[in-house]
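Spend some time on this chain, tokens included, and walk me through the fold:

. . .
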Amino acid sequence: MINNLDELKNVEILTTTKPTKYLVYEKICAYHGVPLQMDIYYSEKLRSQNERTIDKRVTKEHKLLTEISNEFKKCSFACEIDAELEIKKLLSRRLKS
């Protein structure tokens, strides 16, 4: 387990412009008895891009869930079974789009 980025090995990949720096975590494990070497690469340069991507996804999901919640507020149900069926229909319709 990684507790600190300082524990990772530094690697520079040379490109035509300037070198790109990565932190590398290497681990040897087995999968169904077959030995494997796993490598995980971390780039601080891509961190802000990944954060923006995650922020956009969270914002989009929040908007969708708010819309679904508002649709549920408009509904009234005769019984719990009817409510569960309607919720399943609405979610399947909305989450596919």
Q: What stands out?
A: Strands lie at 9-13, 20-31, 34-42. The mean pLDDT is 82.
